[in-house]
Amino acid sequence: MIQPAAIPIQDTSEKRRSAAFLVAYALAYAGGVIAYLPLLSLLLPLKVAQLAGAARIELFSAIVIVGALAASGANVLFGWLSDRSMRAGGGRRRWTALGLGATCLSFGAVIMADSGPAIMAAVVLFQVAVNALLAPLVAIMADEVPDAQKGVAGGLLSAAVPIASAVSAMLVGLSGAGEALRLLILAGIVVAACLPLLLIPARAALVVLPARPEVAIRRGDLVLAWGARLLVQVAGNAMSLYLLYYFQSIVPRAAASALAPQVGQLLTLAYVLSLPIALVAGRVSDRIGRRKPVLLGGAVVAAAGLAGMALASDWRWAAASFALYAVGSAVFLALHAAFAMQLLPSAANRGRDLGLLNLANTLPALLGPLLTWTLATPDDFTAVLAVLAGLTLAGGAAMTGVRSRR
């Protein structure tokens, strides 16, 4: 058992946060997702396809694997640095602002890259920068949102992916715009989304209260929660990275440039559909005080969607199955974020610990490409989708083994 002997908590921790703060936080989180999702899911695959042609899966997989390694280390590092800043009284927002500026600058490196090694180096720089933005930003939720509102907050975070998907569709739909203009527009949107939270002052100073035995956390629960998210996120990363290539295998006669806007629209519709469902699921879990049944249900729905994609033979079936996957995945990931924050053993090291938990997001960016590289071809994704469905089910089942929280 991990006993939090002296957990610093805010002297206002029992007070509910305003709807305005929750929306500002969700908008800033959406800005972080907007920073990477359009680039990694559509703009980068298009650029790699232009550079590598038929070898696109190999080059793209190598790029995202190296990028994931950079992201893993950067997230832990900047989470730890924001912890140090918190203990010194400086707060986390300064690190979020630094990451925001660095992310915008890293888009320039992507624009200038004109070869395989150059685009790989640019993506590494981008991953370090965007994780400097995301690591302290995620820890702000753990610091400033009471447990009783974390389900709703987690549901609001599910808006990030549909918003980012809409931005993706808008960017690839700008047929007359070049890469530089698209990334300039992207940078402006990210800044606008993050700015309101950065202008809101942080909570009051932390105080130290005595430990309470009833909040003891089992070490095995942290491991189970981490492993469950990792298993589910393997599919999430594979879907975000290879979705365009998957639909090319379903509609082989369509050019990538023509198919990309359709995939962008599908992403938007699927994740917009998932938003109200994730919000309701989060609210229900807050009211009943139980998150595990909702988490399991989300994983089952997501696995069913992946199985449908594996069996699909035309655009409509594949698109409907992806929408089903998107709903289940959004419910699981939103509720898991709230659940995991309640398992953290020490408020003094939230940024570092969330960075370690974030390895369940970044390590799948290694596993997903490796699985896809091994099991998929440009013409057939059936085997890899079947494996991803099984991993997603296993992740949902793992959450039922957590004992210290419901």
Task: Tell me what you see in this structure.
The two termini are 17 Å apart. The protein is 77% helix and 2% strand. It has a single domain, classed as Up-down Bundle (Growth Hormone, Chain: A). The chain has helices at 19-52, 56-87, 93-112, 116-144, 150-157, 160-173, 179-199, 219-250, 256-288, 292-311, 315-341, 350-357, 359-362, 364-375, 382-399; strands spanning 6-10, 206-210. Helix 1 (19-52) packs across helix 6 (160-173). It contains 15 helices and two strands. The chain has 406 residues and is mainly alpha-helical. It is a multi-pass membrane protein. It is found in: Membrane. Residues 16-406 form the Major facilitator superfamily (MFS) profile domain.
Features of this protein?
406 residues, Growth Hormone, Chain: A, globular, Sugar_transporter_CS, MFS_dom, transmembrane, Major facilitator superfamily protein, transmembrane helix
Measured distance between first and last alpha carbons: 17 Å
What is the class in the CATH system?
A: Mainly Alpha
As laid out across the biggest beta sheet, the strand order is: 1-2
Q: Major beta sheet, specifics?
A: 2 strands, antiparallel
Order of helices and strands: EHHHHHHHEHHHHHHHH
* Beta-strand content bin: under 5%
Helix content: over 70%
Assign the structural class, choosing from mainly alpha, mainly beta, alpha/beta, alpha+beta, or little secondary structure: mainly alpha
